[in-house]
Specification:
Blueprint: E1 20-24, H1 27-30, H2 71-85, E2 89-93, H3 96-99, H4 110-125, E3 129-135, H5 141-147, H6 154-170, E4 176-180, H7 190-194, H8 205-229, E5 234-241, E6 244-246, H9 251-273, H10 278-286, H11 295-301, E7 307-312, E8 316-318, H12 352-366, E9 370-374, E10 383-386, E11 389-392, H13 395-414, E12 418-424, E13 444-446, E14 458-460, H14 462-472
Parallel strand pairs: 1-2, 1-12, 2-3, 3-4, 4-5, 5-7, 6-8, 7-9, 9-12
Antiparallel strand pairs: 10-11, 13-14
Helix pairs in contact: 2-4, 6-8, 8-11, 12-13
This protein binds 6-O-phosphono-beta-D-galactopyranose.
C-alpha cells in the first residue's frame, strides 16, 4: 500500500505538513540486557570490536553491547526525552534473538514480545509513530553457527516465522516496517549483515551473492506477509545510500562510478521493480556466478515495497585508474576519498549536498516515497560545567544536521517525495563499526565510556534544544 501523498513546498519553505521528524536506534546498540528475558545471543554479542576484529567464541566482558546504554530497563525515560524533543517518528529495531532466542524455535518467546509491547505502549502514550527495523545486524548467533547464516536458504523460512510473530502481535499498531537494515552492506560485512562467519577475503562470491538472494527473497516474503496480516502496514527496504562520484571528468572514471553505483542500485531495483536488473544478471554471469533462483523465488520477489528508506552519512569517488583507487575511511561500503570534502574525526567525509543528490536519484529511479532513517555525526563530545550545570556543546553536530536537513528540504522542493527524517543515534549508543561509546551521535548524552565505566545518566546536549526548535517550527528554523 503506497502512503498517501503530501504536498511539496518551494525551495526555502518549511517542510510539508505531515512530514515526520524523529530519531533512530538499533536494539543491539542500545538495549543491553543481552541475556535477560530469555534473549539468546546474536552475532553482535560476539563482536566486541565491531568490524575491527573477528568474532569471539562467546560473549566477552569487553563487549559494550552486552549492557549498551541499558535502554531495556530505561526505555520509559528515553522515550520521554524523545517526546520532549517533539519526535513524531521513532525508528528502532527488534532483537530477533529476544523473540526467537536461537532463531529456529517453533514458538516465539513471550517475554521478548512483551518487552516491545511496553515500548510501543510508551510511544503511543507520547503520540510518536513507530518504525520498526525487523533485522538490524543482529541475527541470532545460533543461525550463524549452525546454518552458516544467510548463506543457507533455510533462513528464509525462519525469518518469515519471525516476521509472522511480529506482524501478528504488533501489526495492528505499527504502520512502518523495514526489513533488513542496509541490506547492501552484506557485500562488505558478511558476518554483521549476513551472519556468515567466513571472513570476506576467504568467502567465495558465489556464496555471498546467494546469501544476498536469500535476503532479497526473505524481504519480499516479509512484505507480502505484512500486507496479508496487517493491511495498514507499509513495508520499506533499507539501503546504505552513498553517492559515488567520478574522481575526475575522465569518461573512464564516469563509467567506473556508474558501474559502482549499479552494485548498490541493484538492491533497490529488486525491491522496487520485483525482479533482477539485467545489468546485475549479466555481471554475475560474467563473473561465473550462477544464482540458484527457483520459480517460487521469482514469484515472491514480485511483492515490491511500499517505500524506500536509507541511511546517509558519506559520499565517495570512483576511478578507473588503479593507481588512484585508494580506499578511504567510511561506513561499511567505503570508496575513494573526495579531495574537495572535509572529514569527521573518524574520517567519514561530510557532504550535505550528496543527500540532495541521493534523494533526487532515488525518487527519479523508483518513484516510491522516501524516508531518511539514518543521518548524523559521530563525534567525541565533552561534558563541560556551565552556570546552568553540566552541558555538552555539540555545535559541530548541530551544523552537520542543519546542513543535511537543509538539503533534504531543498530536495523536497525539487519534487522529491520525502516523508520523514530520523536522526541516527538520537541518544548516544555503542557504534556499529568500532563498538565504541566515544563515537557519539546523540541529542542525549549517556554517561558511559569506552572502558565500560559511567553511571548511564542521561543529559540533554545543546543539540537537544536545537532539534526541539527544528521540530516545533516544523523545520522553519532551517536556513
Ligand atoms: C549504519 C548502521 C548503524 C549505525 C551507523 C553509524 O551503517 O546502520 O547501525 O551504527 O551506521 O555507524 P557507526 O556506529 O559505525 O558510527
Amino acid at each position: 500500500m503506497t502512503p498517501a501523498p503530501i504536498s511539496r513546498p518551494l525551495v526555502g519553505d518549511p517542510f510539508p505538513e505531515g512530514f515526520l521528524f524523529g530519531g533512530a536506534t538499533a536494539a543491539n546498540q542500545i538495549e543491553g540486557a543481552y541475556d535477560v528475558g530469555g534473549k539468546g545471543p546474536s552475532v553482535q554479542d560476539v563482536l566486541p570490536d565491531g568490524d575491527q576484529t573477528p568474532p569471539t567464541e562467546g560473549p566477552t566482558s569487553d563487549n559494550l553491547k552486552l549492557d549498551a546504554i541499558d535502554h531495556y530497563h530505561r526505555y520509559r525515560e528515553d522515550i520521554a526525552l524523545f517526546a520532549e524533543m517533539g519526535f513524531t517518528l521513532y525508528r528502532f529495531s527488534i532483537a530477533w534473538s529476544r523473540i526467537f532466542p536461537r532463531g529456529d524455535e517453533e514458538e516465539p518467546n513471550e517475554e521478548g514480545l512483551a518487552f516491545y509491547d511496553r515500548v510501543l505502549d510508551e510511544l503511543e502514550r507520547h503520540g510518536i509513530e513507530p518504525m520498526i527495523t525487523i533485522s538490524h545486524y543482529e541475527t541470532p548467533l545460533h543461525l550463524a553457527r549452525t546454518y552458516g547464516g544467510w548463506g543457507s536458504r533455510r533462513l528464509i523460512d525462519l525469518f518469515e516465522r519471525y516476521c509472522r510473530a511480529l506482524f501478528t502481535r504488533y501489526g495492528h499498531r505499527v504502520r512502518y516496517w523495514l526489513t533488513f537494515n542496509e541490506i547492501n552492506a552484506v557485500l562488505e560485512q558478511p558476518f554483521m549483515a549476513g551472519a556468515i562467519e567466513t571472513p570476506l577475503e576467504e568467502l567465495d562470491q558465489q556464496t555471498l551473492h546467494q546469501a544476498v538472494h536469500h535476503q532479497l527473497v526473505a524481504s519480499a516474503r516479509a512484505t507480502r506477509l505484512a500486507h496479508e496480516i496487517a493491511p495498514n502496514a507499509q513495508v520499506g527496504c533499507m539501503l546504505l545510500a552513498m553517492p559515488i562520484y567520478p574522481l575526475t571528468p575522465d569518461p573512464a572514471d564516469v563509467l567506473a562510478a556508474q558501474q559502482a553505483e549499479q552494485t548498490n542500485y541493484a538492491f533497490g531495483d529488486v525491491h522496487c521493480r520485483g525482479y533482477y536488473p539485467e545489468y546485475l544478471l549479466k555481471r554475475l554471469r560474467r563473473d561465473g556466478i550462477e544464482l540458484a533462483i527457483t520459480e517460487q523465488d521469482r514469484i515472491d520477489l514480485r511483492h515490491t515495497v511500499d517505500f524506500v528508506s536509507f541511511s546517509y552519512y558519506i559520499s565517495v569517488c570512483e576511478t578507473a585508474d588503479p593507481e588512484r583507487r585508494v580506499r578511504g575511511e567510511g561506513n561499511f561500503l567505503g570508496g575513494v576519498p573526495n579531495p574537495s570534502l572535509s572529514s569527521s574525526e573518524w574520517g567519514w567525509q561530510i557532504d550535505p549536498v550528496g543527500l540532495r543528490v541521493v534523494l533526487n536519484a532515488y525518487w527519479d529511479r523508483w518513484q516510491k516515497p522516501l524516508f531518511i532513517v539514518e543521518n548524523g555525526l559521530g563525534a567525541v563530545d565533552g561534558v563541560v560545567q556551565t552556570d546552568c550545570g553540566p552541558m555538552v556543546l555539540d555545535d559541530a553536530r548541530i551544523e552537520f544536521l542543519h546542513d543535511h536537513l537543509s538539503q533534504a528540504r531543498d530536495a523536497i522542493a525539487d519534487g522529491v517525495d520525502l516523508r520523514g527524517f530520523a536522526a541516527w543515534g538520537c541518544i548516544d549508543l555503542v557504534s556499529a563499526s568500532t563498538a565504541q561509546m566515544s563515537k557519539r551521535y546523540g541529542f542525549i548524552h549517556v554517561d558511559r565510556e569506552d572502558d565500560g565505566g559511567g553511571t548511564m545518566r542521561r543529559l540533554r546536549k545543546k543539540s537537544f534544544h536545537w532539534y526541539r526548535e527544528v521540530i516545533a517550527s516544523h523545520g522553519a528554523v532551517i536556513g
